[in-house]
């Protein structure tokens, strides 16, 4: 939106001109002329360096009573340039000069940032990066230890499985022979039971031992 330079005619007295003594702009602007009294002619003129970078559509303007006239001023160069805008009325008997500055930064606010805030932000980012690095290292170490424990447990499991397999195979090969021997011992013990004295006692022990061995083989 273009800057506006306000000019008041006939507000204080007849042919009076009220306007600021200086005006700054970074681009084209508008002269807003308000007539508070009887109809009047206003003459506008650009002087000095302002005439080199700006232009008016017309220098003479007729403003009726209570009317407002808006006159655009086209600025072709952002400067910096300084010049004068002259407002005249009553056929030049009343004039008012306005010092106009065309500045690229006019109307723009400069924001100053406290250096302590920048340093605090940098420290915060550094702390965050350090925390992330530590977390990543800890996670990697934990994963490595878990993998090592899993790797070490696998051979142990394989060893137990192999041992059980070998025991099973060994038992499978020896079972028929042991069962046959056990049956023979039981039969011998039964035969001795029919004898008297020591033979009967030995036969009873043989039968009992055979039953124990047979039970063990059946269970394992």
Explain this structure to me?
With 220 residues, this protein is of the alpha+beta class. 48% of the residues lie in helices and 28% in strands. Among the domains are: 3-102, Immunoglobulin-like, CATH 2.60.40; 170-220. The strands form two sheets. It has a five-stranded mixed β-sheet. The chain has a five-stranded mixed β-sheet with strand order 3-10-9-5-7. Strand 1 and strand 2 form a beta hairpin. The longest helix has 79 residues, at 115-193. The protein is rod-shaped, with a radius of gyration of 57 Å. 11% of the residues are buried. The model is unreliable at 155-173 (pLDDT under 50).
Order of helices and strands: EEEEEHEEEEEHH
**CA-based gyration radius:** 57 Å
Largest sheet: 5 strands, mixed
Q: Which range does the strand content fall in?
A: 25-35%
Which key features would you list for this structure?
alpha+beta; rod-shaped; 5-stranded mixed beta sheet; Immunoglobulin-like; 10 strands; 28% strand; 220 residues
């Amino acid at each position: 939106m273009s800057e506006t330079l306000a000019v008041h005619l006939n507000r204080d007295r007849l042919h009076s001109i009220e306007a600021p003594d200086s005006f700054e702009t970074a681009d084209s602007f508008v002269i807003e002329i308000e007539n508070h009294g009887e109809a009047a002619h206003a003459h506008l003129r650009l002087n000095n360096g302002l005439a080199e970078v700006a232009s008016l559509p017309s220098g003479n303007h007729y403003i009726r009573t209570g009317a407002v006239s808006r006159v655009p001023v086209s600025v072709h160069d952002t400067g910096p340039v300084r010049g004068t805008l002259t407002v005249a009325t009553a056929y030049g008997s009343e004039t008012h000069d306005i010092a106009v500055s065309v500045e690229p930064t006019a109307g723009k606010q400069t924001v100053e940032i406290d250096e302590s805030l920048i340093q605090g932000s940098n420290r915060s980012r550094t702390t965050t990066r350090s925390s992330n690095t530590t977390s990543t290292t800890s996670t990697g170490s934990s994963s490595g230890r878990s993998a090592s424990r899993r790797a070490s447990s696998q051979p142990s499991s394989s060893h137990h499985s192999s041992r059980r397999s070998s025991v099973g195979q060994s038992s499978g090969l020896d079972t028929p022979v042991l069962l046959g021997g056990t049956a023979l011992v039981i039969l011998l013990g039964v035969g001795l039971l029919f004898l008297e004295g020591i033979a009967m006692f030995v036969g009873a022990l043989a039968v009992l031992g055979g039953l124990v061995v047979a039970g063990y083989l059946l269970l394992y």
